[in-house]
Specification:
It is a single chain. By secondary structure, the chain is of the alpha/beta class. The protein contains 5 helices and 6 strands; from the N terminus they run H-E-H-E-E-H-E-H-E-E-H. It has a 6-stranded parallel sheet, sandwiched between helices. Helix 4 links the parallel strand 4 and strand 5. The protein starts with a helix and ends with a helix.
């Protein structure tokens, strides 16, 4: 049954990728609004993403992140609520779809950049990425990400999150 639910979710994500949006390449220096999606289940990942957000904000960027906690309860992380929103398993509808109003707002807001940090390919984060109206979507190079993202960064989870974020910044600054 779980396999079937996952397959239906993957099909729905593919359908979302076909929705029209204003696609364009946006350099990091020119981006004024940046959205970040990440798996917030692990505290170490959360802290790395939090520091990355702080770094982007120094450059006067408007940054907002959505983190998914793959648990029934949210961990007790220390963070600025205006920068990061967290959601968990309790906030999912059928087929892994997030249902919180702040996620709907995140999706509808046409950000300049969407940076997807979804190493474990969590379906709720894929739903948000596929639905997002962001002009330019950046994600890890996985076959299932090809219809979702405009730019795919080829790294491995063994190289780590820090390396991936360096590659994202390097690519978006130089191209």
């Amino acid at each position: 049954m779980k396999f079937l639910i996952k397959r239906i979710a993957e099909y729905q994500i593919k359908k979302l990728c076909a929705l029209p949006r204003n696609k364009q390449f946006v350099k990091l220096n020119n981006a004024k609004t940046i959205g970040i999606l990440f798996d917030a289940t692990d505290n170490n990942t959360f802290e790395i993403v939090k520091r990355f957000i702080e770094k982007l904000k120094v450059d006067t960027k408007n940054v907002h992140a959505i983190g998914y906690v793959d648990e029934k309860l949210r961990p007790n992380y220390s963070y600025i609520k205006t920068d990061i929103d967290l959601f968990n398993k309790k906030e999912l509808k059928n087929f892994y779809q997030p249902q919180s109003p702040y996620i709907k707002t995140f999706i509808e807001d046409e950000k300049d950049l969407l940076i997807d940090i979804n190493f474990n390919q969590k379906l709720p984060l894929q739903f948000i990425a596929a639905s997002s109206k962001a002009k330019c979507k950046v994600g890890m190079h996985f076959p299932e990400n090809e219809p979702i993202h405009d730019i795919l960064i080829a790294t491995t989870s063994q190289q780590g999150l820090g390396f991936y974020l360096q590659q994202v910044v390097k690519y978006l600054e130089t191209v």
